[in-house]
UniProtKB/TrEMBL annotation:
SUPFAM superfamilies linked: Purine and uridine phosphorylases
Family as reported in the entry's similarity comment: Belongs to the PNP/UDP phosphorylase family.
Gene Ontology molecular function terms on file: uridine phosphorylase activity
Gene3D superfamilies: Nucleoside phosphorylase domain
Classification via Pfam families: PNP_UDP_1
Protein name per UniProt: Uridine phosphorylase 1 isoform X2
GO cellular component: cytosol
Annotated organism of origin: Alligator sinensis (Chinese alligator)
Domain of life: Eukaryota
Swiss-Prot/TrEMBL GO biological process terms: nucleotide catabolic process; uridine catabolic process
Residue ranges of every copy of the Nucleoside phosphorylase domain listed in the record: 56-254
């Protein structure tokens, strides 16, 4: 519990953090001193689970966001929402930018730098456009200029199917190319206008376009991929970086609602 907070606030905080925890439908577990996860060779008595796994994040990449978007788009339709704008915010690896820079996506491109999203549907390759709303991107850039707290650029975003070989990293479990080949590829990406790499923007752009939803992508870069692959920036710095897209989009929403 946070010290120094009034009792009501403490209780609310405790309740809201409990709400987000995984609920186990088994009252017996609470009575056990230790829980041994036999097949994982782990035990709560011998390992510190929150330290080991507390920061694990599930639900990354195209399949996860596509499933979510199918249902979100249907929800918006059933609710008869109109003139909807959707903005994806998140993290990415930058190319040729100082870490912490924010990229507003001009075009979401695939690993061959084409502004398209390819998907196998009924066994056939279907190619969909990943165009985003240019005016919205410019309005977001204007918001970043207004808050003037971090470097922001408009650039292409490469969307990949994998974090390691798919993003030309040298530190995956498998690597089939040299450092020189990696750097050549990233430089080609840069020359094609790519300023950051992430794993959701292409299907996001394609699905929003097909559904007539105005869309934008705003991602902070956690590292400069021309300088390395590992994300070893201190945790508190990463937390601050991750707030940048939220700050920018928060400003945009307030402006849109006439509150600034
Ligand atoms: C950016 O960061 C995640 C991978 O670390 C992925 O969800 C993405 O697009
Ligand atoms: N997310 C990615 O997809 N790649 C990075 O390098 C960093 C975050």
């Amino acid at each position: 519990m946070a010290p120094g907070l009034p009792d009501k606030k403490k209780a609310e905080d405790e309740q809201s953090s409990k709400k987000n925890l995984i609920h186990l439908c088994n009252p017996h577990l609470e009575q056990m001193k230790e829980d041994v996860l036999y097949h994982f060779a782990l035990g709560t008595g011998t390992q510190d689970f929150p330290t080991l796994f507390g920061e694990v994040k599930h639900g990354m990449g195209i399949p996860s966001i596509a499933i979510m978007l199918h249902e979100l788009i249907k929800l918006l339709h059933h609710a008869k929402c109109s003139s909807v704008t959707v903005i994806r915010i998140g993290t990415s690896g930058g190319i040729g930018l100082d870490p912490g820079s924010v990229v507003i996506t001009r075009q979401a491109v695939d690993a061959t730098f084409k502004p398209q999203f390819e998907q196998l549907i009924l066994g056939k390759n279907v190619i969909r456009s990943t165009d985003l709303d240019e005016q919205l991107a410019n309005e977001l850039m204007q918001c970043s200029n207004e808050i003037a707290q971090f470097n922001t650029v408009i650039g292409n975003t490469m969307c990949t199917l994998d974090f390691y070989e798919g993003q030309a990293r040298l530190d995956g479990a498998i690597c089939s190319y040299t450092e020189g080949e990696k750097l050549q590829y990233l430089k080609e990406a840069y020359d094609a206008g790519v300023r950051n790499i992430e794993m959701e923007s292409s299907v996001f752009a394609a699905m929003c376009k097909l559904s007539g939803i105005k869309a934008a992508v705003v991602c902070v870069t956690l590292l400069n991929r021309l300088e390395g692959d590992q994300i070893n920036t201190p945790h508190d710095v990463l937390v601050e970086y991750q707030q940048r897209p939220q700050k920018l989009v928060g400003h945009f929403i307030k402006k849109y609602l006439g509150k600034v």
